Amino acid sequence: MRTSRTGRAGQYLALLAYLLFLAFPFLWLISTAFKPPRELGSLHPTWIPEDPTLANFRQAFDEQPLLHAAANSLIAALGAALIAVLLATPMAYVMARHRTRLARAATGWVVVSQAFPLVLVIIPLFLVLKNLRLINSMPGLIMVYVVWALPFALWMLVGYVRAVPPELEEAAAVDGAGRLRTLVSVTAPLLAPGIVATALFAFVTAWNEFFFALVLLKTPEKQTLPVVLTHFIGAEGVADLGPLAAAAFLATLPSLVVFAVIQRRITGGMLTGAVKS
């Protein structure tokens, strides 16, 4: 019993240390965002600002078009989330209900595709979008975000579809419902929590994405929020630390809120997909 308690206490301590390790950058970001220039240049920094100020936030909005960039990010993220869900839902249904060799191969390809680094695909992707005349355009960026989010969205939704009892669909078929009617009227309502979680995941992925937006968007008025944040760093690599921290803090809030909502659903979807029926 004593050994069990000691082991459990060790686990909790390790978890607490890991949480502190993860929280340290965000807590330091909040602290920096509210510090005046005098404290930012101090040789003995403190966690809590001695003289908290909102000047960094005002300066950030004065120096860069944060609201316009946030609107661009919102359009790209919402568009990518909506299209990814519309494509992934019927595809996941087919992959979950028809467990053929082709479906298993598709599932394997979904997992393998997540291992591809961004640098590996950016050159062919750029050439394809150039031929389609979608460089420096929001539709082109949304298309890229959909392609990038679709594999994980499929993986999530396949688990949710497998959790829906096939007997419900068989009962609908007995009553005369076709495949499409069954998917829309029977399966889709039961998949609503999974669809919402998948859409929010695609939204967070697109909202935080930086590399594709940096390469594909050229004009300042079309740049997204993560790209605009780099403008707080000067040509010599010197960062305007206070406004940068304030802007980064505001840009991080939507992702934190959305992830706090969906993290249990994402975990549930993964566990559901891991259980064989």
Q: Round the Cα radius of gyration to an integer and report it.
A: 23 Å
Number of helical elements: 13
> Strand portion, in percent?
under 5%
Poorly predicted parts = 269-277
What is the rounded distance between the termini? 36 Å
Task: Please count the beta strands (DSSP E, at least 2 residues each).
Answer: 0
Largest sheet: none
Global outline: globular
Tell me the structural class.
mainly alpha
User: Quick check: average pLDDT?
Assistant: 82
Provide the succession of SSEs. HHHHHHHHHHHHH
Please, could you describe this protein's structure?
This protein is mainly alpha-helical. 77% of the residues lie in helices and 0% in strands. The protein is built from 13 helices and no strands. Helix 5 (101-113) crosses helix 7 (138-163), helix 7 (138-163) runs parallel beside helix 13 (241-274) and helix 8 (166-174) runs antiparallel to helix 9. It is globular and about 75 Å long. The protein starts with a helix and ends with a helix. The model is unreliable at 269-277 (pLDDT under 50).
Quick recap:
The protein is 77% helix and 0% strand.
Question: Which features characterize this protein?
Answer:
single chain; 277 residues; mainly alpha; 13 helices; 77% helix; 0% strand; globular; disordered C terminus; transport; cell membrane; membrane; MetI-like_sf; Carbohydrate ABC transporter permease
